[in-house]
Design brief:
It contains 4 helices and 11 strands.
Length: 181
């Protein structure tokens, strides 16, 4: 009879230790200079670097509630800790086709300020990336107004910095609604 209680306590202790380790690692990562720390995400086939200082949380993928009369790239709304969060198919927004959703896909919240926050669908969250591990892409120029510097990692994989502030201020991004036809 005591064995099941001990198993539950042992699992609770392991879970508590794991949560403490995750919290510690996030604090450590956020203590690095903002220009040096990124969250790497895969959207479709494209790798993006989201500045850690401007990135909110990563939440489990769930089907957003559709919103009528919105752009095709506006997936809908989800409840994120009691706040409604607009979810964007960033691949469609970029003109690259719908972002594939697969097991392990996530919604990554852009902005730490609730009033400006929205989420993008990430095919996969790759993890933390640091500037010391990246090389500016030779001869490459930043793309649109919200696309920051391009980089290459040690494996030769191309990465694009997402300027979250500029994206959240871009008129095309702010116009999620469409006219009724």
């Amino acid at each position: 009879m005591n064995a099941p209680r001990q198993d539950v306590r042992a699992r609770q202790t392991r879970l508590h230790d794991y949560q403490a380790m995750l919290a510690r690692r996030l604090r450590e990562a956020r203590s690095l200079p903002a220009v040096d720390s990124y969250l790497g995400v895969l959207v479709g086939q494209r790798h993006w670097l989201l500045p850690l200082a401007e990135t909110g949380e990563v939440i489990e993928m769930r089907a957003p509630a559709p919103v009528p009369l919105t752009q095709p790239w506006y997936r809908g709304l989800v409840n994120a800790r009691g706040n409604l969060l607009g979810v964007i198919d960033f691949g469609l927004f970029c003109g690259e086709g719908a972002t594939p959703v697969q097991p392990g896909s996530k919604i990554v919240v852009l902005s730490r300020h609730v009033e400006r926050a929205c989420g993008i669908v990430a095919t996969r969250v790759v993890g933390l990336r640091h500037a010391v591990d990246l090389t500016p892409a030779a001869g490459a120029e930043p793309g649109g107004a919200w696309q920051g510097a391009p980089f290459t990692d040690r494996d030769g994989r191309g990465w694009q910095v997402l300027d979250i502030g500029r994206l959240l201020d871009a008129p095309a991004f702010l116009q999620a609604g469409r006219d009724a036809a």
